[in-house]
Amino acid sequence: MAGSNPSTTGSDPSLFVRVSRVIERIRPAVQSDGGDLELVNVSDEGIVQIRFHGACVGCPSSAMTLRMGIERNLLEHVPETTRVEAVE
């Protein structure tokens, strides 16, 4: 994803994999607008860290994408997630 090596500080690698699968389903929509996103980390507490790339960086709509798109999908498909944060 976006040329990095994502990792998880959590003890459940399957949680990271399940979150990653949801992110991969969302990415094409973000990429169609000239941006991209990278899954950075999933903590034991279910906090998902995402890094925006391309047109998403500094875009006023990225906060809405984060909450209404990414977080909503993750909470629906991976109930162990608690929230999504954007990181730099």
Provide the gyration radius in Å: 12 Å
Q: Which strand-content bin applies to the residues?
A: 15-25%
Oligomer: single chain
Order of helices and strands: HEEHE
Helix percentage range = 40-55%
- Please summarize the sheet with the most strands: 3 strands, mixed
**Given the C-alpha coordinates, what overall shape results?**
globular
CATH architectural name: 2-Layer Sandwich
For the record, the CATH class is: Alpha Beta
Which parts are unreliable, with pLDDT below 50 for 5 consecutive residues or more?
1-9
Would you tell me the structural class of the helices and strands? alpha+beta
- What's the CATH superfamily, by name? Fe-S cluster assembly (FSCA)
Summarize model confidence as the mean pLDDT. 84
Tell me the domain tally.
1
Strands of the largest sheet, in order across it? 1-2-3
Query: How large is the count of helical segments?
Result: 2
Describe this protein's structure:
41% of the residues lie in helices and 23% in strands. The protein is an alpha+beta fold and 88 residues long. It has a single domain, classed as Fe-S cluster assembly (FSCA) (GMP Synthetase, Chain A, domain 3). The protein has helices at 13-32, 62-77; strands at 35-42, 47-54, 83-86. A 3-stranded mixed sheet has the order 1-2-3. It is built from 2 helices and 3 strands.
